[in-house]
Amino acid sequence: MSESREDEAVAWYSARVRGIIPMDGFRVSKNVLRIIRQERFECRIDTCFRTVVEECANRKTTWISNLIINSFEVLHLSGHAHSVEMFDKNGELAGGLYGVSLGAAFFGESMFRHQKEADKAALWHCYNILQKNGFMLWDTQFYTDHLSQFGCVKIPPDQYQRLLRQALKKKASFKV
Predict the structure, then answer these.
(1) Pick from 94, 100, 92, 93: which is nearest to 74 by CA?
(2) How far apart are CA 60 and CA 101, in angstroms?
(3) What are the C-alpha distances in Å from 22 to residues 18, 26, 33, 63, 131?
(4) Which helix (H) or strand (E) holds 31?
(5) Which of 64, 72, 108, 113 has a 20 to 30 A CA-CA distance from 12?
(6) Is the pLDDT assigned to residue 8 strictly greater than 80?
(7) CA Rg, the chain, in Å?
(8) Domains present along the chain, CATH in parentheses
(9) How do strand 81-87 and strand 42-45 relate by DSSP bridges?
(10) What contacts 97, CB < 8 A, 6 or more positions away?
(11) Over the stretch 136-150, which tens digit does the pLDDT of each residue have?
């Protein structure tokens, strides 16, 4: 994590109590499901990764520095970091998220939205990709009230380490 967009230092941080979305516990509101059925947004994967990360960093206070953006782009180019992008009917980027996949674990990093519910639609699509491809662990790093509406729960470090070890032993691919 960094202190600002221009920060040239990166500090390693690990939450004592982890937030995860259990693969059998994900949920979204009826409103989001209606938006998905109406196909209000088009989902694309990995077509504008750097832009998604930059949009996630584009806020008043951010932990995502330019150094972190560049580092995640290297992970993306090596096939480990991915973006889920939601485009509106005019072809404009409406929202999205990005994260890192290792084995059958997906580490959600950040999300953004320019249009209402676009970030939630991206989460729904991300869940479907993870579910379809046999991912075992969806790490959100932190538990927040916002993420709890999607099924995020807190787990203790020993349980997290056990789930992580199991997920890293299995292969999974982040693809549609």
Answers:
(1) 100
(2) 28
(3) 12, 6, 19, 25, 11
(4) helix 30-37
(5) 113
(6) no
(7) 16
(8) 18-169 (3.40.630.70)
(9) antiparallel
(10) 52, 56, 83, 84, 108, 109, 110, 111, 112, 119, 122, 123, 126
(11) 999 999 899 999 999
